Amino acid sequence: xxxxxxxxxxxxxxxxxxxxxxxxxxxxxxxxxxxxxxxxxxxxxxxxxxxxxxxxxxxxxxxxxxxxxxxxxxxxxxxxxxxxxxxxxxxxxxxxxxxxxxxxxxxxxxxxxxxxxxxxxxxxxxxxxxxxxxxxxxxxxxxxxxxxxxxxxxxxxxxxxxxxxxxxxxxxxxxxxxxxxxxxxxxxxxxxxxxxxxxxxxxxxxxxxxxxxxxxxxxxxxxxxxxxxxxxxxxxxxxxxxxxxxxxxxxxxxxxxxxxxxxxxxxxxxxxxxxxxxxxxxxxxxxxxxxxxx
Length: 294
Hints:
Elements: H1 18-28, H2 35-49, H3 59-68, H4 73-89, H5 91-94, H6 99-102, H7 104-107, E1 111-112, E2 123-128, H8 139-153, H9 157-162, E3 164-169, H10 175-178, H11 183-195, E4 201-207, H12 211-220, H13 226-229, E5 232-236, H14 239-243, H15 264-272, H16 275-283, H17 289-292
Parallel strand pairs: 2-3, 3-4, 4-5
Antiparallel strand pairs: 1-2
Helix pairs in contact: 2-3, 2-4, 3-4
Protein name: Alpha-tocopherol transfer protein-like
Domain CRAL-TRIO: 101-263
Pfam families: CRAL_TRIO, CRAL_TRIO_N
């Protein structure tokens, strides 16, 4: 499926094109004829069970969770409960976070969010783990930045339907960095990627990994189910292997592509210019000291 791939650093908050809705019908079970009734049944289940108190129960918000679980109401409800449980159990990642403070992570190009989609229409999120300095950026800040990006990305209906792609670049990873990867941390990462957030990971690509990566992966493996393992692809420094999955014209130059690096700061600043995005982020507990101070 080929969708518009302009290099524009802004979210598409409009309605999905017909071909994307057709794809959702075929692959997610999202039938326009039954969608409203399923959302209504989902809402009734939330109220009846009372396992969480969502800050929103409008159709657009609940649709995210249904799409993430292929319109199976029971599974969507479990995801919704997990989402709020994660926020309640990890307030340091989600509550009263200033978007301005997180922009500094972009300056060191640890997290990069290109302002374009790859051939299928999916967004790409790139982690250059070797650039992370534990004495400069805390684990909490890394989680805060990741969750903030995901909260913005899932506002896009394209992302809700198609999911996203992650590239983890472990080039330059040191044992000093690896020691910070504890089982508890690994569990939280998997919660965000798999069980607690309404964004499906379509594929996760590992590049430039070394023996140090094996230490980290052995910590993560016990938390990975078979479905997630099937979505992980290991490429090392073999760019041709990566290009079998992502056409080079949708990659930065460092991965044999044609684009410059677009960092996290570039993405956040672009999203902060949209009042609708800012309003939704504030409802989630985020703040913006620059905008609020004006």
